[in-house]
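Not sure how to ask, but would you mind making up any protein sequence you like and the tokens describing how it folds?
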Amino acid sequence: MNDREAKTHQTLVRSREVFAQWVDDFAAGGAARQEFADLQAAITEVEHQAAAHGTGRSNAMQGTQTQNEAREALVAGMLAIREAAKVMNVEDKFPYPPRNNDERLSQVADVYATNALPLKPQFIAHELAPDFLEDLAADKTAFEAAIAARMNAVGDHIAAREELGDALARGLQHLRNLTSLVKVKYVNNPGKLAEWMAASHIERSARRAAVASGGATPPAPPTP
């Protein structure tokens, strides 16, 4: 969660804890108790989606590293074939593997496999391992699997981000509804009203508060 979302979550939790102390003051089966139940459910969903977003983002970052490593392994194997092809005077059949276009790299790997197959004995005679084509196929499979895994992780954390926003919005709506019902219930109890308003208030970040008040954000202290 970013700072704004974290402050909203904290407000929802504070409000839940305060209302839990007063729930018996409200009619059983009434609107306030239903809003309270819905608020609790929204908070649970917020926390679930925040965890899912964090996990998905971490997996996406790890996926990027894995994809980079798989790319380098594939390129290294292809370059070894290309070096042998130079000596064999068939270099033109094995174009230089691109590092900045993953789709093109997979395509070029297929070209290597196709063109190397009829020349396999010669490549082995030029110091490539007997199973170099099998290694090339395995590296290409690992590379494409890494791409798919990273894309899935990115999709997961984007979806969780959307669900997190929706859950926070639902929580805020239930909080607003509860605020109205609390005002009705405690119209003659300024102490409880003040406690509720304090609990249900969402604190602004220091920067937003400074901008709203017309002030400037204090500069960061100089780095020693």
In short: The mean pLDDT is 89. Residues 7-22+29-205 form one domain.
